Amino acid sequence: MNIVDIIPFILLAALLAFCILIWVNKKSIIAPFKKIKRRTWIILILVLLAGFMLRFFVVEHMHNLYYDELGYLDIAKHLAGEGEKCLCLHNIDGECLICNHSLKALGFTALLAAFIKIFGLNAGVAFNMVAFIGVISIAMMFFFTYLLFQKESIALFSALILAFHPLHVRWSGSVSPEIVSLFFITLTFICLLLYTKSKVPLLIPSLLVLFFTLNIKQENIVALPFFALPFLARKEYLKKFLPIAGFMSVLAILSMIGLYITASGKALSPALSYTFWKQGKLLSIPLLKKHFLTSMKFFLDANYTPYLIIALTIVGFFLLFKKKKLLAITLLSGVIILPTLFTAYVGQALTGSEVRHYIPGLIPTVIFSSYALASMGKLSLRRVKASYIVALLVIVSVIAYIPYLTSKDSPYTPVQRDYEFVVESLQKIPKGCIIITQEPYIFDLHGQSATSIHLPNLYLNNDCMYYYEGESCYRIGLYKICNEVAETLALESKPYLSDGRHSFYKIKGDVLLNFN
Predict the structure, then answer these.
(1) pLDDT score of 46
(2) What is the pTM assigned to this prediction?
(3) CA within 20 to 30 Å of 104's CA: 35, 221, 370, 407, which one?
């Protein structure tokens, strides 16, 4: 085990220490919420039940993200098994002979590994973990908004909007880190607010959960200034900001050092050589200019957010700006900065599967819209509060998104069909056979011998070898390599197994890999 493999365990230790300290101080932490009325708790439970039903029984649990989700699972598998944070590129007879260290979501894969260690390696474990965290994120949003405004109505509306938000519901059915990221960002906000409001020694727990949150996804580190939000709720809170600002900076530096160490380990998988990271284009101004306007259109795209919520968000900003200018501007900066950051970081616009990057940005959106809803409580139509009517309309408007939530045929889910075909095909392929492919870790997850076509000068001699032409061969940057492989390897003319788009071809003779 080297230092790269130790980092995830440091993160889990920090999370465990946080949980212990929260338990020790539970009475003081619960105290600020004791004033909440019983009726409010009952409504919150009903909202949570609705959120649970949507995330566990309505939305399809499937892989929405191009292979990354399967990569997270493979990394978590080896982290839970051998204690190595790496992606398997060469697996023979169940033993991973070449395992490359990966930058993929340090904190997320560490948490996933912990669940796999407890419940076993199963895609269902990963799906249920993300869905469950998606549900309790609704409660976290309630507590955060309540601490921010001390208004039960705003807190309830924030929980309601997040519970029914199509984007949050949809991605709660995947194995992508954004849902988990939103949960821990909100939890960090709650801890920081409790730290500012009480005399309870919550500085250390706040820093521990912040440390974990910064490492769930790399971009959380760059978004560090957004964590100053709780100190802007009231002027008197700013006094407590200076002592914690230094610690926050130190944690950010430590997190960046961790990323640097990971990046310097064995680099990324050779299969990722075409990516922006290898080309040195991450956080690129040209990419930002190219995709920024397209990303901004995301906020007005009813494919992901009902127009009613969009309207409430805009109204909520202006209403909040009248009373709390600094808080409103800070929240607005989160709405603008996050897509700006992700556009430059990912190198793509917020469209298709890339919209997942904005999920943490739902926090300010939900706060604005819930503030607008609560403000409508002063208005009434035939003795019925306007806020209740609009809230009901928000729920009803989500019905139009049921096809989006339940569809297995969305534009960015071909990887799910690819994965289902692989799982089905493995029933017909002997375990001793070697699969040569772009994404060997998919087969490694199921204990099947597999090798990456990108490993240089690797000689393979086996009586049973197959080349798998999967979904990656339809991706820009890789299809040329797939064509080269198909022309170079001695493949049988007809596929051994095929679903019309993905195919297994039997290889005749030995193989010397040399594809880049």
Answers:
(1) 93
(2) 0.86
(3) 407
